[in-house]
Specification:
Elements: H1 5-15, E1 21-26, H2 33-40, E2 47-50, H3 62-76, H4 88-102, E3 108-113, H5 115-118, H6 125-135, E4 143-149, H7 152-160, E5 172-175, H8 181-190, H9 197-207, H10 211-214, H11 223-232, H12 241-249, H13 254-263, E6 270-271, H14 272-279, H15 285-296, E7 300-303, E8 314-317, H16 320-327, H17 329-334, H18 339-343, H19 347-362, H20 365-372, E9 379-385, E10 395-402, E11 406-413, H21 423-437, E12 445-452, E13 467-469, H22 471-474
Parallel strand pairs: 1-4, 1-5, 2-3, 3-4, 11-12, 12-13
Antiparallel strand pairs: 6-8, 7-8, 9-10, 10-11
Helix pairs in contact: 3-4, 4-6, 7-15, 9-16, 9-19, 13-15, 16-19
Length: 477
């Protein structure tokens, strides 16, 4: 298994404890939650079950289908055939009886995958699960229950932050993150796929370090050929992935999709007020629920741009696959089957790479801090732009505000070779420094920092950068 060393160690430690454990594992769909549990506990799972996708069933018959499927899973793991349960209270009673019969004093591991899918409307699932754990499960020292779900907002609201009978019942939680660049490289190497770090960074711009997507790469083909095969070809494996993502995570995904489509039109994102006004949505509880669900699902982040107050909180799309799909939706749904190979050097793709590389950097702040030698310094990351006018040099890709009174003003450049600072670049950077100096405390030191692929060409203007971070730095642990 690539990466996940920390998670595997944590899970095994929990398995070895002599106490009841209720563990929640959540994260973006396709990030590898199920694989993590399967590989970590191979041969040690007493019972496992995965919910049926609500997108695949008629709503009226979904509860019956879920209950029948749960009973069938119990039978597959050795339960004697019995009458099908009529509700979730009866279903969990069957599970309790099954576990009691198999109990020999050793650790019993129950794995319930896609838990949010089991909670169909008016099913009483949460109440029944609460009864199963509070009345029976939590009193059995040899019982370990692991629940997984991709609907992160459900996992947070209904389980982890539950204010009812499941309040504070989750004994441990793991939010599984996508692979880093380093882990992507290790994945490709383990699968005999030879890409340069330049190409691995591009794959991250598209697929965002999601193991499920990386699994479709074929080492016989170039990066561009793989992208066409996976996304642009007529029967590409991921051509419909964007819609499937939303259907699997949100009950009624149309509003969330509309919000994400709008947010993706500006790299810095929009304020809540702008979202409500532009989309004609009521600025109330429903919008809060939609935005919080998108944040919980790792499609969107909320942040305060540098120099602004909390009222200017922005929402921006950060999921690379969603951004890529929306940027090239027209070509994906009706363009050439070899679009990426044909346009790999075209200006629209080159421009997209520049923006996408910024997202790669935002997802590797820890590596950037390590390269700067400030891993232990408390730091906040943000972007800044001055949208009220069209002045040159009023946008800053990344700002690292440090509590050691230093501000790193980062310029992000994705180039095929070393970056060369020209006179215009030099003057622009000086102008940005001057603007920042007027906005920060006099005790702050501003350092211009370049984040690029292969480094900096030394010339009369290169000294404007105090620090230079390269692609290799982003591949650090």
């Amino acid at each position: 298994m690539i990466g996940r060393e920390k998670e595997v160690k944590e899970l095994n430690k929990l398995y070895d404890r002599n106490r009841a454990e209720l563990i929640a594992v959540y994260g973006r769909r396709r990030v590898g939650k199920t694989y993590l549990i399967d590989e970590t506990f191979a041969g040690r799972i007493t019972f496992r079950h995965a919910g049926l996708s609500p997108a695949d069933e008629d709503a009226k018959g979904l509860l019956r289908a879920q209950l029948d499927h749960f009973c069938n899973s119990l039978i597959l793991f050795g339960m004697e055939k019995s009458s099908k349960p009529d509700n979730w209270l009866d279903a969990f009673l069957l599970l309790e009886q099954f576990l009691q019969k198999k109990d020999d004093g050793s650790r019993q591991l129950v794995f319930l995958d896609e838990l949010p899918w089991l909670d169909t409307p008016r099913s009483g699932f949460i109440r029944a699960f609460e009864g199963f754990w509070n009345n029976w499960g939590c009193h059995r020292k040899n019982l370990m229950v692991i629940v997984c779900g991709s609907a992160n907002s459900w996992m947070m609201n209904s389980l982890i932050n539950n204010h009812g009978g499941l309040y504070n019942r989750v004994t441990y939680e793991i939010k599984l993150a996508p692979f880093t660049l380093r882990e992507c490289e290790a994945f490709f190497q383990a699968n005999n796929i030879r890409f340069s770090r330049y190409d691995i960074a591009q794959s991250y711009m598209i697929f965002g370090g999601i193991p499920y997507y990386l699994g479709y790469f074929d080492g016989e083909y170039s990066l561009a050929q793989n992208v066409d095969r996976m996304i642009f070809a007529r029967n590409a494996k991921l051509k419909d992935e964007y819609d499937r993502l939303y259907q699997s995570v949100f009950i009624n995904p149309d509003t969330e999709k509309t919000i994400v489509t709008f947010l993706a039109t500006r790299n810095a994102g929009y304020t809540r007020k702008e979202i409500a006004e532009k989309l004609g949505l009521s600025d109330g509880g429903r919008l809060s629920k939609n935005l919080n669900a998108l944040i919980a699902s790792d499609f969107v982040v909320k942040y305060v741009p540098f120099g602004m107050g909390k009222r200017e909180e922005h929402y921006k799309v950060v999921d690379p696959f969603c951004l890529f799909y929306l940027h090239f939706a027209q070509e994906i749904n009706g363009g050439s089957e070899a679009f990426w190979q044909e346009n790999v050097t075209a200006q629209p793709v080159v421009t997209w790479r520049g923006l996408a590389f910024e997202h790669v950097c935002f997802n590797h702040i820890l590596q950037i801090k390590k390269a700067l030698g400030i891993s232990g310094v408390i730091t906040s990351a943000s972007a800044w732009s001055k949208r009220e006018d069209d002045q040159e040099g009023t946008q800053i890709d990344l700002l690292l505000t440090r509590n050691d009174n230093v501000l790193n003003m980062c310029e992000i450049k994705y180039y095929g070779g070393k970056f060369t600072v020209k006179k215009d670049d030099y003057l622009t950077l000086l102008g940005r420094q001057e603007i920042l100096m007027g906005k920060v405390s006099p005790k702050m030191t501003i350092r211009s920092t370049l984040i690029t692929t292969y480094g900096l060409t030394q010339n009369e203007y290169s000294g404007v950068f105090t620090n230079v971070i390269t692609l290799d730095d982003l591949f650090a642990e």
